[in-house]
Amino acid sequence: MRHNDDDKLTRLVQSSTRSLMESFRDKTRSLSKCSNDVKLLLREGCDLRIAKQTAEKFFGNTKISFIAIDGTGSQDQELDMLIFYAGAFGYTGQIEFVQKGCSCGEILEASAISNVSAAIPIHEEDASNVVGESTEGGVEVDPERLPSTLMQFAEYYMAVKSIDENPNLKIVLLDRTLAGDAGHLIWRTSELINQKRCMLQRIETEFGTVTPLDLELSRMLHPNDKLKIPAPRSQFIKYAAINELLRSIAEGDSKGATSSIGYEDLLNKIGAKRSRLGKLANNLSKFNELYSFLKENDVAGSSGLVIKPNTKGYWQRVFSATMKVAQHIFDPPSGKHPLIYEQDSADEPENKGDNNSSSNSNSKGKSTNKRWITSADLEYMTLVMIYALLRAAWEKNVLVIGLTKDTAAAELIKTVVPILQNARKLNMIGEGQGGVAATGSSSSSSSSITGGGLPKFNSDKQLLQTSSIINGQLVKTPWRTFEFDACFRTMAPLINNKNYENKNKPDNNISNNNKINQARVKGAFKNVISLERMFVKSYVQLWKSENDPTVRSHVFSYDRPCYPGLDTADELLLLHPDGNVDEEIRPMIHFDKDCEISHLVMDILCSMASEVIPECLGHNYPLFLADKKAKCILEEMKTGYLSAVAFEMANSEFDQQVLYEARFRDFRLQMENSRRTKS
Predict the structure, then answer these.
(1) Cis peptide leading into 418, omega within 30 of 0?
(2) For the segment 417-441, what is each residue's pLDDT rounded down to a tens digit?
(3) Could you give phi then psi for residue 204, rounded to 5 degrees?
(4) Rounded CA gap, 173 and 624, in Å?
(5) Where are the domains of the chain?
(6) Which of 247, 357, 461, 553 has the highest local Cβ count within 10 Å?
């Protein structure tokens, strides 16, 4: 009976595999007929002259320093003790921009001062304080979450710390997706801030005490006037208004007084649509109920709005507190636990019911607040580090590049291409499967279909990698796709049609059928679209064999911050129906014309991708070295910190061995292994 079941299972697996392989062959056959369509997405090589000129203009020098950072993490167990390890390590060097392309000089290990790492023991019974997450069924504990979260935080913290320590550092390379991490963490940390559970709250800094309002503004508000951030639309309209109110503080008189401003004037100043007056008033009113950021005598009166002056330093306070906590984690005081932060305070903790905090009175009448640093806190502080990198990129002209090896993203083929087709900027005529309906179709949405002429691959990387091999004779390396805004990952294309417009009656009353450079979109989830003009993304392939053009390196993706004066958002207008209003979105996209900094990035990546090492071909050699260093140090450190834990446990003053007995699951596994050995 069992033999028949095995045969049936084998046949089922064979049949399923055969079906999947046939589906893939169909895609590749279609892809071979779409070579011209795919080439519309690619930009071969780079202009070395433009790259050198941009380097001189952007960096102010043709010879600058860089750092490449990668991290590692681990989780081990000694009886009832969990030991977590995370670290970030880097390699540094110099790049010189010359007429024949930039030259990457000798690559050196970053100094031990710059490296950051931590080995952290936690009792199993305390794990819920750090990695516990409240759900409908109770508190769920996921210890595996902590090493990756710590590693992510360590990498971004090291990048920020390196820029602060070395003013000549002008390029930061990370094995991370900046836009992807930021977008995910903005969403992940919203509940932490709304419930006022973040351990950064109430920390004293040289700029004042961190408040819940500081944490919320630091999560969302990082303005750049030249890039027109934040955009005065949808969920961002209140932050655009708050940014304008903060500007009024800077423009106040010598005594610090600021004039009040009415809702209509505020709406005009931020550039929002007139029909958004009600939304602006409602959003600011609710926000004020939560955080009390407006002066009380102006909230309900007719004199207008005035923001409290102490709101202005929100970012300095949060960033300072984050750096304090990071220092504690990676270099804790003697005898202190890395994930327990202590601070003397004359006040009682606000969240008396918070299980993650405790207080002890000292002889001077003050209380010492002890709080566990949770994985959610680490995620918020990681977001703060990403924003610190973004601000350094804007203020110090630091080029930050996040290079990702493996990605399942599909926004290029499922979102960007259909939108460009709807905007009549891209016309694909290949024989691919599926396709976007023609502009003016009666369909109301195309969120689940691919761009016309392209087969339905599950990811951008899979399509580009396969196309590059199949059409190897036509596509020369190095190449990259055109750069596009990271906000496209949260969009879905809408078909432009009269029925939709008449039904919704947008306030601008502009018919968008067949408009060049215009298209309709919606939010892919709950009709929410992330903030535009902060990051752009592209895919690259940097190496191929000279003997066989089908032998190529992998396709990687990179993202980087948008830079005012270099990136311009003038190619595309997107209309996003939000209620009965068509909000306007001008994303950053370089389809018609490359940005100068695109050539600079490509020149840098190419100069670091020529090492003849099989597992590094076409990747980034400094990042490759940083990865090897991280893994090597982990192996060296693991023996040491595990031995230290075992030694302390063996020399414990407790006589009751039951306190350190292994879990039943581990005991059972030990017995099972013992039987196998004997048999």
Answers:
(1) no
(2) 999 999 999 988 664 433 333 333 3
(3) -85, 135
(4) 11
(5) 61-176+620-679, 182-382, 407-619
(6) 461
